[in-house]
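lol so apparently i was supposed to do this last week
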Amino acid sequence: MSYDLILENGTLVLPWGEAEADIAVKNGKIAAIGANLGQAAERFNAKGLHVLPGVIDPHVHFRDGGKGGIEGVEDMLSGSLGAVLGGVTACFDMPNTNPAGVDVATLQAKHDYINGHSWCDIGIFAGATMDNLDETGMLESLPGVCAMKVFAGSSTGNLLVADDVSIERLMRSGRRRVSFHSEDEERLQERKAEFEKGGPYSDHYVWRDVECAFKGTRRITAIAELTGRPAHILHVSTAEEFAFLREHKDLMGCEVLVNHLLQAAPEVYERLGGYAVMNPPLREKRHMDAAWAAVADGTVDNIGSDHAPHPRANKEKPWPAVAAGLTGVQTMLPLMLSQVNEGRFSLLRLAQLMAEGPARIYGAVGKGRIVAGNDADFSVVALKAKRRIENDWIASQCGWTPFDGMDCTGWPMATIIRGQVVMYEGQVTGEPMGRPVNFRS
Ligand code: DOR
Ligand code: ZN
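anyway here it is w/ zinc ion bound
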């Protein structure tokens, strides 16, 4: 037997723990794991490196609905370039694009567009609107679609399904897990007038307060229980929601963002101004502590970046005109590896939250774990490498990161997708060969 590729001499992060072993790849899949695997067309020496299951960022906004993105901001090619430079092998892309991914024609066009326009594999969120509430069963089973995404509170773009009756209708069509931006629209609107006159950037988390997020999450959980339909609360940002979701794990999934784990108010607003503004907002340290506790006890199912690029001009507008959203797909893995080195969590737990978790939550076929038969997707990292994150490393067309100047310990050295080395030591190799991800129906 001759394989296409053997990764040798590395430390593997298998689902059940770390192991010194080699991996043989054939036809893009993991063919064998063990020692002395024999002949291969290509060999990758991972000596001194850790081989993680391909990291998935299940929450990105690449701004590209299949007809090109926004010039100077992002498109699928530049967004996915950032992903693979950052050691990410697959991204699940949100529907608030132009055109919005909310109907069969657009979702199929976006699926076909992935070939030749992406460096990494892509899953597609289908967006809920007031016009497609009864079609979610059909939209969520289209090829490449990871889930329905519901904006229950308004954010960037105009996708919104805010009232209980409509959310219940949507939850009664289809059966897969539905993902929610859960900030409560009624509370956002009730309190908007108080803040419209303007104020410091930190007013962002005073307006979009704890109750706004918590109320939305309570309402969605009640509808999930009423309909028996599983849901996923994206970017959970409050201690109150983590405590609540801990009691509702039967139906509810829980995502936390890198930013909510690493950046806290008021300091982050003083330091970064508009470059700290995102939805849901960065909040005080007690919420950050609760997020780490929820990582430690298993309440959190996955970590995401919510990569949401905006041009500098829009990030530098005064509050509340400032655009909400931060880049993150390229920096998430080095930042989280640094937290492993800080002793915050183990490399195994990182792999669970950044590869296995998103694959399980969305039912991604062949992804998330280094096991025989799965896709040969690997994030190969140097756990002790010291590097600095800088704006000029960022591939996103907007050209900035809220982590500019941050020193990291732990860095992605290679990104391998279905057996192809797509990134090696900071350089991409070959042509963009990303494909749509398959999901269990
Ligand atoms: O901060 C955010 N930015 N939150 C969202 O919900 C949307 C995102 C964007 O698309 O800019
Ligand atoms: Zn988002």
